Amino acid sequence: MIEIRKYLNFMNEVEGLKSVTRTSWMQSGRQESTAEHSWRLALFVSITAKHFPELDYEKVLFISLIHDLGERYSGDQSAVLLSDKQKKTREEKVAIEKLASYLPSEAGKQIIDVWEEYEEGVTKEAVFVKALDKAETIIQHNQGQNPSDFNYEFNLTYGLKYFEEGAFLKSLRAELDRETRNELDK
């Protein structure tokens, strides 16, 4: 029997991501939510994955949708201010496991496994999503209505190692850096 109630309970629980405020500012002047970031990342992955036919398209889309589920309880932690990456990962793993417990066991295990794959960043799918996750954040930084003391310099080093493979990612990074330098010159 399909465990419909479990899927609905999971969906009800993850609704909280819509209210988790990130440290990025939108053009409107308000801070974005984790759900908004994840949606835009999934869209970015969807429209660019064709440049990487060797990737498992379904997997990269799934990774992009669940990569920040762990922020449901612990919130977004700015990479600029992050003092203990391992602590953040541990907190998010607990959150992922809690969210997965709302699902039927096989679906919950899939969420945990894919999230761990993303965190470890060793598969080509995880690296691709990590690159676009960093890119989406930089795009938001460059287009947002940020506080006057916003640290644009951070963008120039953020996630560099994920942009080393292939012409597409290298070109994307060059353009993001150009946009960041334009912001620095304002």
Describe the structure in your own words.
The protein has 8 helices and 2 strands. It is globular, with a radius of gyration of 17 Å. α6 packs across α7 and α7 packs parallel to α8. Helices cover 59% and strands 4% of the residues. A hairpin with a 5-residue loop joins β1 and β2. With 186 residues, it is mainly alpha-helical. It has a single domain, classed as Hypothetical protein af1432. The longest helix has 20 residues. The model has no long low-confidence stretch (mean pLDDT 94). Strands 1-2 form a two-stranded antiparallel ribbon.
Number-wise, the strands total: 2
For the sheet with most strands, the description reads: 2 strands, antiparallel
CATH homology superfamily: Hypothetical protein af1432
Task: Specify the number of helices.
Answer: 8
**From the structure provided, what is the oligomeric state, counting identical versus distinct chains?**
single chain
Determine Rg (CA atoms, Å): 17 Å
Q: What proportion strand?
A: under 5%
In round numbers, the mean pLDDT is 94
Unreliable segments (pLDDT under 50, ≥5 consecutive)? none
Query: Please, how many domains?
Result: 1
What attributes characterize this protein structure?
186 residues; mainly alpha; Hypothetical protein af1432; two-stranded antiparallel sheet; 59% helix; 4% strand; globular
